[in-house]
Design brief:
Number of helices: 8
Largest sheet: 2 strands, antiparallel
Shape: globular
Length: 199
């Protein structure tokens, strides 16, 4: 019998991704001298989070459902070529339905063969799921929401003493590049999802 925990917040509540997440602290941390070695990347991530904050309110009416919230290849067990189990339910929450797809795709963004990986994943996803036109149009932004929530999460973990800022400093360039790749390929991502859903 432990304390009851409140359910995890949806991804759109960006500064609730961790109990120690705080908007002002986040921006101050990224502007601090600790990030000077990766200053262009830290500044880009701060600008992207600000842009995401403004965008989130425009997506408020998307359909919601219970999602796993962290479903990517590190959290899927495979045996004999078939999925045998899923791990890590700490982000399971009532959230935008399409966020599940965005989380899955976020792990592939920026990989050398990201477009092929997106294509393969969406091809399988479309066999069992349907999305509205509004959801499909939101996918690139929601992939970036997932990436940027990781940035906020690592700053909050450092604030809580669970980790150091070095965890984000070493990932700042990678996260920034993922966001830029998604933005540069947003139209292609949407068209590819539409094509698979039409099937």
């Amino acid at each position: 019998r432990g304390r009851s925990r409140s359910p995890p917040p949806p991804y759109r509540e960006l500064f609730r991704v961790h109990p120690q997440a705080d908007r002002d602290h986040f921006y101050a941390a990224l502007a601090s001298p600790e990030f000077d070695g990766v200053r262009p990347h830290a500044d880009r991530l701060a600008a992207e989070v600000r842009e995401m904050e403004a965008l989130i309110s425009q997506l408020a009416d998307l359909p919601q459902q219970l999602i796993h919230g962290d479903l990517h290849y590190d959290n899927v067990l495979v045996r004999d070529g078939r999925v045998s189990g899923l791990l890590d339910f700490e982000f399971c929450a009532l959230d935008w339905r399409v966020m599940e797809l965005a989380v899955c795709l976020s792990k592939y963004a920026g990989e050398p063969n990201a477009a092929d990986l997106f294509e393969q994943f969406v091809g399988g996803y479309a066999q069992h799921a349907q999305l509205s036109a509004e959801e499909v149009a939101a996918v690139p932004s929601l992939v970036n929401l997932r990436i940027l929530s990781n940035v906020v999460y690592f700053v909050a973990r450092a604030r809580a003493g669970e980790d150091g800022l070095q965890s984000l400093i070493t990932r700042a360039e990678t996260y920034g590049n993922r966001v830029l790749w998604v933005k540069a390929n947003a139209d292609k991502i949407v068209a590819m999802i539409e094509r698979h859903l039409r099937g």
